[in-house]
Design goal:
alpha/beta, 2,3-Dihydroxybiphenyl 1,2-Dioxygenase, domain 1, five-stranded mixed beta sheet, 20% helix, 38% strand, Glyoxalase, Glyas_Bleomycin-R_OHBP_Dase
Length: 208
């Protein structure tokens, strides 16, 4: 378990979810969708983020998501750390699009630099230990609040945040029950972390 190849989202309407993601973000083989009838209410305990180069790119991606049917949770605004906004996809997944830049340096594009999976966990220290024991290396760590892992050439980055803090950042209540409606795909064997997030073995096509 040293990298993430893809994220699989579970949806009750897979065709609609696939249409949304094709229109909104064009994530290619980083994102998969499969059918699930597992119950899920409220906050699912994770967010996905797209990091971009400039505010105009964030606006372009957020705009395409809203046009495809997403709901705005936090309109794009400037902050101390940069610029960004949060939307919720029709399947219920929460997406943040953000940049550390505060000024535009070129025409708007829908390109993004990275995809970040942020897991909301009950105990950051315990979850950090779980992942370190399974081969991940810590890239950044801020006390008991936040951990980011080094995932090398992986197309998706992994980070941990306290669940309540993550919900607040997303603009939703922290309560939620039922399935996370997500599976994390990588080259290592299957496992389940302390907060119930599941990892599955994947076989990805070579990137050109």
């Amino acid at each position: 378990m040293t990298s993430i190849d893809a994220i699989t989202l579970e949806a009750t309407d897979t065709a609609a979810a696939e249409r949304f993601y094709a229109s909104a973000f064009e994530l290619g083989d980083r994102l998969r969708v499969r059918a699930s009838q597992e119950p899920a209410t409220g906050f699912r305990g994770f967010t996905l983020s797209l990091t971009v180069a400039q505010p105009a790119d964030a606006d372009a991606l957020l705009g395409s998501a809203l046009a495809a049917g997403a709901t705005a949770l936090k309109p794009a605004t400037k902050s101390m750390w940069g610029y960004g906004g949060v939307v919720q996809a029709p399947d219920g997944t929460i997406w943040k699009v953000a940049t550390t830049a505060k000024k535009n340096t070129g025409p708007a594009t829908r390109r993004f630099d990275s995809v970040v999976l942020l897991l909301g966990v009950a105990d950051v220290v315990a979850s950090k230990r779980f992942y370190v024991d399974r081969g991940l290396t810590v890239a950044k760590s801020f006390s008991r609040a936040y951990v980011e892992f080094a995932t090398g050439a992986s197309p998706i980055k992994l980070a941990l945040y306290r669940r309540r803090a993550l919900a607040k950042d997303a603009g939703v209540a922290p309560e939620g029950t039922g399935s996370h409606r997500i599976a994390i795909g990588g080259p290592a064997g299957p496992c389940t972390d302390p907060d119930g997030f599941t990892w599955e073995t994947t076989s990805m096509p070579a990137r050109s």
